[in-house]
Amino acid sequence: MKPPRFTYHAPGTVAEALSLLDEHGDQGKVLAGGQSLLPVLSFRLATPEHLIDINRLPGLDEITRLTSGGWRIPALVRQRQAERSPRLAASAPLLTEALTQVAHPQIRNRGTICGSLAHADASAEMPAVMLALNARMTIASAAGTRVVGADDFFVFHMTTAIEANELLLSAEFDDPAPRTYTSFTEFAPRKGDFCLAGVAASVTFAGDGTVAGSRVVAAGVAATPLRLTAVEELIIGSALDAGVLAAAKQAVSDTVDPSGDVHADAEYRRQLVSVLVARALGTVQEKAVRAGDAGQDGKPGNVKEDGKNGA
Amino acid sequence: MSATTRAPEAGEAHGAPERMIGARIERREDYRLLTGHGKFLDDLEMPADTCEAAFLRSPHGHARILGIDTSAALDVPGVLGVFTGEDVQPMMKPLPAKVAHPDLQDIARLPMALDAVHYVGEPVAVVIAVSRYIAEDAADLIEVDYEPLPAISSTAAALAPGAPLAHEGARDNIAVHVTQRAGDPEAAFAAAPHVLSETFTVVRGGGHSMECRAVAARFDTVTGQLVVWDSTQAPHYARNALANLYDMPEDDIRLIAPPDVGGGFGPKAQFYGEEAVIPWVAMQLRKPVKWIEDRRENFMSAMMERTQVHRIQVAFDDDGKLIALKDVFEHDQGAYVAGLQVPMITLTTVPGQYKIPNIHTELYSCFTNMVPTSSVRGAGRPQAVAAMERMMDRVAEYLHMDPAEIRRRNLIQADEFPYKVGLIFRDGSPLTYDSGNYPEVLEGTLARLDYESWRARQASLRAEGRHIGIGIACYVEGCGLGPYEGAKVRLTNSGEILVTLAAAPQGQGYETVYAQIAADALGLDMKYIRVTTGDTGRIPFGQGTFASRITATCGPAVLQASQEMRDRIFSTAAVMLKVEGKNFVFRDNRVTLADDETASVTLQQITQVANVGKHGITMLRGVRAGLETQAYFSPERAAYASGAHAVVVEVDPETGKTEILKYVIGHDCGTVINPLLVDGQVLGGFAAGIGNAMYEEQFYDAAAQPLTTSYLDFSLPSSVEVPPVELFHVQSPSPLNPLGAKGAGEGGTIPAPAAIANAVEDALRPLGARINEMPVTPPKIVGAITRARS
Amino acid sequence: MEHDVLDGTETADRAGARVVNLTVNGERRGGLAPVRMTLADFLRHELGLTGTHLGCEHGVCGACTVIMDGAAVRSCLLLAVQADGATIETIEGLAPGREGGTGSEDGQDDELGPLQQAFHRNHALQCGFCTGGFLMSVTAALRDAPVETDDEAREVLSGNICRCTGYAGMIRAVRETSDEIYGPGLDGTARNGANS
């Protein structure tokens, strides 16, 4: 299981990297964390002629605040680095919660968040989270940069909007609206394995303790991370009481169409993801109640006037 | 022979050695392994001109080979040679089944494919190059013209009427059909008050030792001798196979298992085509050659256990006493019979710890187009235990009886040994359990589990909506198998005792354990004793490490050879000290009179006299030259270890997740030589059992293509998946060897799948869900619940 | 792998080889690495540090784990050329081991570090093939934070696979070492703990 031959490039500037991608992108692959790419090479599932190692590029390894309120995660931010950021944990707990589920620390020490997005495994945590956070991906080429929203970024299994001559420079997302609560949950054969299904949910409550809006995303049940729009529509204006959760569970079951494989048949994944959605929404509700932004048992009483961002 | 060790009691006199057998001695092997100086095969410093090999393997489950074009591969710079089946034909002979049967439809297994391939992963060609990287490049360039043929991907497919043949020209897809009987099962079933039938499917996986297979060889053109390093569990078996294949005298082949081998667990006890090809190629090229298997190869082409389907019936009376047992099972043998040991063991393990007067076990061993199957830790016993123990729970359910009680009523009792089951064991002897105390182990296990308390609380927990289940599984384990195992003991020229084992370790601590045994037998402090292992050049005969046999066979051999060495040393000392009829003892590295420590000689002095001698000078009268002894121990028959597992689980019916709340293992392996190491074996085996019970499952598609080919698809238990275990021992010594020892390597594994399946079904009993397949995974649990609802 | 054997080969590989200089176990080391050579192979075959083992070559088993610039990483998932300028720690650097040491009762433990001694005491290794990876993963984890419960120990160990021991001894070893470094854990000292 030794990698095949390739020509190795280690550009020192982004411009150099983009120029290399222009020239060799069709026959090349970008090497960032390498935690997904190296196994592909060792199994010789791909034999790129060129490897463009971006690890020496300057200025891409710091998590930064957006002036408009939010976070930018450039290409070389390691998963472990983000996982341990207290500011990120306070402000984007969905991301932090999901990061702890990604493989094991030894992988997260090298793996990058952007790398996981570009790799676009539909069972992976980061694509689902960024879709739930409505992230914007900044993609660069020698011709310039463009921004693609998460809804349009994930195209198919292992396929994104990134063209062969382009580089994903960063992912950014805004701070959540006030009274927003999140939950990430997945179910895998063992902790750290690719999940059989996973859910990333971000729910914003209105002043009266009912749901104002949400983004509820499933991993592992489609060719890309999947917005569960049926659920999002269903829960608007409701309190997340038992009846609503049951309806949400049914809505998921009715609308997802997962494929099965030897590890888990389609019916199991369908049931699993619907259960996980109900549980994620239940967790969100509990967090909102604890923070005073939703009422016990879905009753609107005891809701704070000013609301606050919640974990 | 009886075992009397004459060592003085611990602390009795200054310099007197402590008793070693039974002592919790820390391992000698650890130092080098903890500091990165282990000597695994790929760590060894091979000669500078050593080349590396990469095999091209069949991508088809079944296909004819129409032609192979190696020209592009040969052109790659750095390639020294490419060999196909045709190229190695001069040495090709069929590799015999390790365990056979007179009725076996034996289809020749060649070291490398010639005209056809019969499983994905079968070696088709080998590239020798200056590096593994380049060898793989070249292997990618070999073009093989295949004509695909229909492939058999399961035992059901193999046995279906009109099924295509897994091997063209074979009579059918049945390797062997064997029946074992005791009593009169037909009559018993006909007359029985109650009969239950069920089908259970058990899938096991590969050994997945962390070190894959590895072979290296160097041919000395001057002496005409071949040295082979092989991460094998059976050095002499491999050496003998090579001597036969190459028509070379056995002494011209020295086969060495490196001092460190990274796990074996069964797959490394077989002999593979790669082990035949690599040394031969080294001889042709006149260069040392090394092949280090990678994990993808290991998934596809290392032998594994796979699927057994058991159709089992039991007959019983109103009190739950078993009257008759019938189990007809299908075993996936793979494309070739590398050995029949696994299904033959299953065949005789089904009755287990129970008194069953009428037994019918029947095996259909089927050819399929998948990699041959052979033993993996447990070796056919987990499947037998699964069938029987699942059935015991079903009988209990049928009679509304407690599952513990049903077992109590049928256990062989402590005063009924030796117990003849009525069947014939794999080693040809009548299946006889030598010793054991099944009720004591079962009760001890249940007590530590708080079985009664959990049962009492189960109803109220269920009322709270929790799905709690309790599972029990009892087992027997034939171990300590013959035909023999051997050891030599020599006093070296430096005055050290060297114990040479034929057996090769893969982490069992032989360098420590056998020094302990020798120390006790000699009455000499362990620090003057060194153990060496697994080298056919140092000891001519041996069998191998498998089937939990070494402690019970090599132990007595070391014991005997050491006792004889003690006699030889003391009689030499008697001559040197000019005393007769006196008792001697060791004090540190001296031999002294037991009642007069002023009279002594050192081991160094003894070796000088008996081994080294003085050039041209007559030996001291009465001293026999050459202080070396050897012993080969042949057990009369297999010993029987036994035990019980009990577990409490909680199942989440929505996701199928199963959490283990408590797990207890009761274990009886006879005399425990080193408690630290025995516990390590049981707990290590337990982790493998958890894997079999809940995680490890191989999948193949209908074309016999493997679908699980990496750890991204196949889950081995990590520390999070292995729950804490309470382990206790009962020691029922075996009368079959002087140490009273049995085997400890597999008891942690064998009943785990049954215990957990029993517990899961118990947890889901209110839902009526049936668990008929192992491993029990979340999707299967949810599927069982869904089926029960409809 | 030696790269000085045959004509043609050298050229073919040298064209795609780079000098790699790094610090390994406190020593400045260097070598020529074909660009596709993994860090694991470089350590083992170019630098002769064979204590790091390859169990799967796809990042799951953890046998190849080393510490690079302070973080535990899979050396099978890194190219050697990526480690140019890096600081690497391997099992050989944990304690001043002696080449060829077979161990004996007298004072061997003195030459092992606390974690290695704890592994030894608790029979946390059998075949030893996975041990290097575990020692490096645990070393990195213990530098970060104490391990105060058996469940935390299991978490720390969960990124590596062992097929021999069943992990029980390792859990005790991790707890004991953490206690030695940080003081007793949350559920009493590890040595008093029952069933791990």
Structural overview:
The complex is a heterotrimer of chains A (311), B (790) and C (196). Chain A has 3 domains: 7-53, Uridine Diphospho-n-acetylenolpyruvylglucosamine Reductase, domain 2 (2-Layer Sandwich); 64-174, 2-Layer Sandwich (Uridine Diphospho-n-acetylenolpyruvylglucosamine Reductase, domain 3); 180-298, CO dehydrogenase flavoprotein, C-terminal domain (Enolase-like, domain 1), CATH 3.30.390. Chain A is built from 12 helices and 14 strands. Chain A has helices at 14-24, 37-42, 79-83, 86-91, 93-99, 105-108, 113-119, 125-132, 150-153, 229-235, 242-255, 266-291; strands at residues 7-9, 28-31, 50-53, 64-66, 70-74, 136-141, 144-149, 154-156, 159-160, 167-174, 180-187, 197-205, 211-219, 226-227. Residues 305-311 of chain A have low confidence and may be disordered. Among the domains of chain B are: 30-38 and 482-633, Aldehyde oxidase/xanthine dehydrogenase, molybdopterin binding domain (Aldehyde Oxidoreductase, domain 4, 2-Layer Sandwich), CATH 3.30.365; 435-477 and 640-790, Aldehyde oxidase/xanthine dehydrogenase, molybdopterin binding domain (Aldehyde Oxidoreductase, domain 4), CATH 3.30.365. Helices cover 27% and strands 25% of the residues of chain B. The model of chain B is unreliable at 1-12 (pLDDT under 50). Chain B is globular. In chain B, helix 14 packs across helix 15 (550-577) and helix 15 crosses helix 16. Chain C has a 5-stranded mixed beta sheet, with helices on both faces. In chain C, a hairpin with a 2-residue loop joins strand 1 (17-24) and strand 2 (27-34). Chains in contact: A-B, A-C, B-C. The A-B interface holds A 1-5, 39, 43-44, 187, 189-194, 196, 261-265, 267-268, 271-272, 275-276 and B 132-133, 136-137, 140, 294-296, 654-657, 695, 697, 699, 707-708, 710, 712-713, 715, 717-718, 720-721, 777-779, 782-783, 786.
